[in-house]
Amino acid sequence: MKKITIPRHFSKEAKGLWKNILSEYDIEDSAGLAILQTALEAFDRLKEAQKEIERNGMTMRDRWGQVKPNPLLPVERDSRAQFLQGLKALNLDLEPLRDTIGRPGGTKQV
Description:
By secondary structure, the chain is mainly alpha-helical. It has one domain (12-89). The chain is 52% helix and 5% strand. It has helices at residues 12-24, 30-56, 73-89, and strands spanning 59-61, 67-69. The protein has a two-stranded antiparallel sheet. Helix 1 (12-24) runs antiparallel to helix 2 and helix 2 (30-56) packs antiparallel against helix 3.
């Protein structure tokens, strides 16, 4: 097994996700690592857009004083979709593991 390095440009949070995902799932192929990197880059972009939207608000005024949606709203939306699509492309089992055998609680047997 070769040593897989964390991309240096990731945020602290993305680096943590990288470590956690690689420890929980056996991703060693170059395509899988490229998909994970792209997904986490989208995650970082999502978080940056959210910070700016939080700072400046959901709406802004244009040069004529008209209220317009913050131009980062589509960036936030698209980055979220890209992040989730990347996780989906990795075919990760996102359902939490259970420590018991059988059906999950709250299901009704017929």
